[in-house]
Amino acid sequence: xxxxxxxxxxxxxxxxxxxxxxxxxxxxxxxxxxxxxxxxxxxxxxxxxxxxxxxxxxxxxxxxxxxxxxxxxxxxxxxxxxxxxxxxxxxxxxxxxxxxxxxxxxxxxxxxxxxxxxxxxxxxxxxxxxxxxxxxxxxxxxxxxxxxxxxxxxxxxxxxxxxxxxxxxxxxxxxxxxxxxxxxxxxxxxxxxxxxxxxxxxxxxxxxxxxxxxxxxxxxxxxxxxxxxxxxxxxxxxxxxxxxxxxxxxxxxxxxxxxxxxxxxxxxxxxxxxxxxxxxxxxxxxxxxxxxxxxxxxxxxxxxxxxxxxxxxxxxxxxxxxxxxxxxxxxxxxxxxxxxxxxxxxxxxxxxxxxxxxxxxxxxxxxxxxxxxxxxxxxx
Length: 380
What we know:
By secondary structure, the protein is α+β, with helices and mostly antiparallel strands. Helices cover 37% and strands 19% of the residues.
């Protein structure tokens, strides 16, 4: 029996070494080590042998079984490695090539796309695009824009004031505190996160003599958060200063804007309002593009967009208040300066998010900032 065990062992070793596929190795495992194979049957029959033969035969059979199990495992691993290497060589892929199907490289966010569209409109009307700093002084953000000392926007609950840390002359960081906490910390009140892009009106007039035609896009900050307000949002401010400018010029400019954004059939109307830095001030409405300004739909129901009014409020505007010109010093560089007896101007400010909401029918302002691709991919 021992001779038969050695014979089976030698035969199996030879065949295992000659196997060229994983399936062939598996077949050899079943043939020599399976439940019905000869070697396992010998091990089961050891108990029936004479006592003096059991130890020697059992030891030889177990050694043969362990040796074959090891050989089969090694040969299977070798063949698997060879097969993997062959697949890698055959399936070589250039990872720098586009995917299949090619994946889009991305798209502009709806806010940025709307802002670019607005900039292009006013560039086509002869305006120049300017950008300003987001941390602004109270002087430019409020004082130079005719905000009185008790104006509600100055309250620490309505604006984000900025506290300069000790040694700020050598540091590049700032600490922002909103509300009454800044007062308890002893923060100075001469810096604020700008609440509108309007501070660039006076800065632009200080840097450039009239005539002046500029638009100022950018981020602004106010401590509001709900479906129609966010602490950070975007505005596009416009300013035109020249001789003999009237509200008729303002209406014509905004009519061109409305027709480009909302359609050629749109109209605009001006309603009296109040803003500290314009006089007279107006709210500007555009005729509803959902119901064509009728206030109701074809089935007679009230228009869900304009709520039956036929008009949509889009921005605030007005003639530049003469007091604003007093904050522009008369120098040799910009002589004769911004003399309210010689120049007039108009200004407007619009929320980029609101324009996009109206144009695309977006119901909630917070969707802009949630980074949900299902929402963002709708705007190509």
